[in-house]
Amino acid sequence: MSNVRDFGATGDGTTDDTAAIRHALKDCDGMLEFPRGNYLISETIEVVLDELGRIGIDGADGTATVVMTGAGPAFRIVGTHGGTGDPNSAKPNVWAKQRMPTIRNIEITGRHEEADGVELIETMQAVFSGVLIRKVRHAIRLHKRNRNVLIADSHIYHNTGVGVFLDAVNLHQINICGNHISYNRLGGIRIEQSEVRNLQITGNDIEYNNHRSFGSEPEITAEIYIDTTAERASVNEVTVASNTIQATPSPGGCNIRIKEKPDTDRPPGLWGISANILGNQENSLHLSGCYGIAVTGNTIYSSENRNVLIQESSHINLTGNVFRRHTPRLFTGVRLENSTDCVLSGCSFRDESVEGQQNGASLLEMTECVRINVQGCQLIDGAPWGIDAENCREINVSGCTFGGELLKDRGEGAVRFKGIGEKNLISGCTIVGKLDLNEAANVTLANNV
Question: In this predicted model, what pLDDT tens digit does every residue of 401-447 receive, in sequence order?
């Protein structure tokens, strides 16, 4: 390793070590070591891989801190990889000089309102491991083009911008695993104006990513915020699994927010959202313009508006999820608006509060929807309704149970269909509570108890 102190860095927390670190970077043997200390820098340390060769940055098991006192990223790592994830697409100089730039076991903080943590541009196989980034704007920003990124076992914590920001980037193959991503004002993981494939978000704690901990004005955000409405933007082949994703409610806020643009040449979708804990936001999961998403085996609880809000989407499958509320001040429920060809199966809905839903939400609401199958679900203690549908057609509710001990005290009934509809069917269900079925909704009842 090349010790930055051997090149004049002091790490005393008061001296500007920018020049010394640049000297060390230029003449190091490929591994830049920061011993214990606080290293102030006033300008970005730019790592140009094709000039410097393969580089690693190490903070001596987390005992070193780099403090960015100027604007911009503390470290900018720049490669020239213009290929794909196919190993044959990487040019010889990329394999020889640029592969796998690594930052590990180091803390990066900021003392400037526009200070950032680390920026990646045209890199291949970048690795973050054991990193703490806090009190900057954006902690990790991926821009322009990158391939095969690993962000693992790190703390991305209390930043004024985004924790992991995929900002106008073409990126394939990124794993974000085993991290603590919390208290980032504009979102934990945010994707905008980007083309992304093969994204895995697994085993993280992603919490409280909104304005509340900063005492600032609200801005719409989410723990995981995906916006593909810009021209040429798309996000496909995504797994969000086994995370805890929680928050305090904020206006327009969500735990997971996915904004797709329908009617594109390449359909969105190929998403799996499974085995997560989501809750305590305005909407826990908000999908709009989405296509082809499986939401499976999650516990989704206590929201200001809805546990799940689905708008203008199709081919959404909600299977084996638990929807509930655990506090009287928040609510539960799933709402579909102007959506088609969706399935809800094996889900459990329950409003376990004595006072019922003060926001007027039924457990499952559908408006202007077509071809929605609701199968084998438990809808318990709905207030006002278990299912409330309006202007829907080809809704098939089968094998479900409606009931609960609290219905007689504050619920309206089991199922309501209002407005105009056709070919709606309720069959094979066990129903406690009244049915309110408008004749024009055209609902057929068959073999219910």
Answer: 999 888 777 778 999 999 999 999 999 999 999 999 999 999 999 99
What single-letter amino acid sits at 231? E
Kindly tell me the sign of the dihedral angle through the C-alpha atoms of 22, 167, 89, 124. Answer: positive
Domain residue spans of the chain: 297-449
| 144-162 per-position pLDDT tens digit | 999 999 999 999 999 999 9
Q: CA 97 to CA 310: how far, in whole Å?
A: 47
How many Å apart are CA 55 and CA 49, to the nearest integer? 7
DSSP string, 306-324: EEEEEES-EEEEEES-EEE
Instruction: Report the greatest alpha carbon distance in the chain.
Output: 84
DSSP string, 152-214: ES-EEEEESS-SEEEEEEEEEEEEEES-EEEEETT-SEEEES-EEEEEEEES-EEE--SGGGG
Q: If you ran DSSP here, which 8-state letter would residue 185 be given?
A: T
Q: Rounded distance, CA 389 to CA 398, Å?
A: 15
The highest-level CATH class for domain 297-449 is mainly beta
Give this prediction's pTM: 0.96
274: β partners = 241, 296
Rounded CA-CA distance 212/203 in Å is: 24
Neighbours of 231 (CB within 10 A): 6
**b/e 250-262 (16+ beta carbons within 10 angstroms → b):** bebbbbbbbbbbe
H-helix or E-strand spanning residue 96: helix 92-97
Handedness of CA 210, 212, 214, 218 (dihedral sign): positive
CB 295 within 8 A of CB 318: yes
